[in-house]
Every structure is written in structure tokens, then in C-alpha cells.
Amino acid sequence: MTDVATGEDRHGRGRLILVRHGETDWSRTNRHTGRTDISLTEHGERQARALTGQLAHLRLAQVLVSPRQRARRTAELAGLSDVTVEEDLAEWDYGDYEGLTRDEIRAHDPQWTVWTGTTPGGETVEQVSARAERVVHRLDRHLDDGDVLVVSHGHFGRVLATTWLKFPVTAGAALHMEPAAACVLGDDRGQPVIQRWNQPNPANTEPG
């Protein structure tokens, strides 16, 4: 099993560790899950417990968690303590597209993606990006004391990564995150970098 504690950044500061919540019924069936407060599946709970080994030995200055129960439960089962619930870490609000798959959305909006399309009744790219900017600003002061770990969601986690990397938010389309995958963002002499991305969860290769 590979943990994420190795690979200190070269700028003398902590890193940003991103973790997506474990599997839910809707993530398993590729349904857009924003404000719906859905629980983990049994496999999602196994994934969350399996994170314990991957996250061992981290020198954590802060742990931030989305208010949604799927993220909070993932953090709990992963053995994370001193958790701060951060409202800005909630998943993208998909509005009228909540609960739909991309194919269902494209049945009436053929070119739609969350990154480039319009989401009726939901958040715009600019609104989600503004939330990510606020999170990065808040966590920055903790990085002198160690790593900051964030348990959040698939789309918002990718927006947070593009914000850290100073990429256009639409670059998040290329940063796929599996449920309960860990990602490590660091700094190389002032240049924000990806150290590891979409690290496989050990529970995905275990029997049962």
C-alpha cells in the first residue's frame, strides 16, 4: 500500500491533500450529486476505512470537510480528527440537473458539460470558482505548520485543484477523481505542482 506522506515539497511549506468521499449509490451510477445529502454505500465505507493507511504519518495542520454526510462519514471512517466543517467545500449545485446522468442531460443539451455548459437553477463556473478561491485563501495560513487535508467531492475537488495550480477552472475536466481517491498538490520553488493524482483506493482491489 502506498501512503501520501512522502514527497515533501521543495518550498518548505505543507501540501494540499485532496480526498474525494467514498462511493454512494449515485456516484456508482454516475448521477450528478450536489446538494442531495446521500450516504455512503457499504463499499464506500470500506473505501473510507482503507484511506487510514494511505493517510498515515501525515503532519496535518488542518482537516477541512464538506458539510455533506458522505464527506463527513468518509473523514470519520478514515480516522481523521479535529475536523472543521467548511460550507464552501460542498459539491457543485447542479440545480435542475441534480440526480441526472450526463447522458440524460445531453438528451436535450447535446454539448453540455459542467465545465462549459449552463446549469439551470444551479451554480455557475464563476460561483464555484469563487468558493474554491475562498478555501485556498483560508487554508494558506496553515501551510507553514504542515499539510492541509480536504475531504470534499469530485467536481469541487477538481475546481479546488485548478485554483491551487492557477489553471483555468475548465482544466478541471482533465483531472478525474475516483471515489475515495487521494491527490497531493505541492509547491516546487514557488511553482504549484501536482505530486500525485487520483491515487487508487486499496479497497477497490480487495475481495468483497
Describe the structure.
With 208 residues, this protein is α/β, with parallel strands linked by helices. The chain has one domain (16-205): 3-Layer(aba) Sandwich (Rossmann fold). The protein has 6 helices and 6 strands; from the N terminus they run βααβαβααβαββ. The protein has helices at 25-28, 42-54, 69-77, 102-106, 125-140, 154-165; strands at residues 16-20, 60-65, 83-85, 147-152, 182-188, 191-199. The protein has a 6-stranded mixed β-sheet with strand order 3-2-4-1-5-6. β2 (60-65), α3 and β3 (83-85) form a beta-alpha-beta unit. α2 packs across α3 and α5 crosses α6 (154-165). The mean pLDDT is 94.
Helices and strands in order:
Blueprint: E1 16-20, H1 25-28, H2 42-54, E2 60-65, H3 69-77, E3 83-85, H4 102-106, H5 125-140, E4 147-152, H6 154-165, E5 182-188, E6 191-199
Parallel strand pairs: 1-4, 2-3, 2-4
Antiparallel strand pairs: 1-5, 5-6
Cα gyration radius (Å): 16 Å
As a percent range, the share of helical residues equals 25-40%
Which strand order does the major sheet show?
3-2-4-1-5-6
Measured distance between first and last alpha carbons: 18 Å
The CATH architecture comes to: 3-Layer(aba) Sandwich
Got a strand count? 6
- According to CATH, the fold-level topology is Rossmann fold
The helix count comes to: 6
| Top CATH class | Alpha Beta
Poorly predicted spans: none
Counting helices, strands and paired strands, the structural category is alpha/beta
Q: CATH-wise, what's the superfamily?
A: Phosphoglycerate mutase-like
Count of spatially separate domains: 1
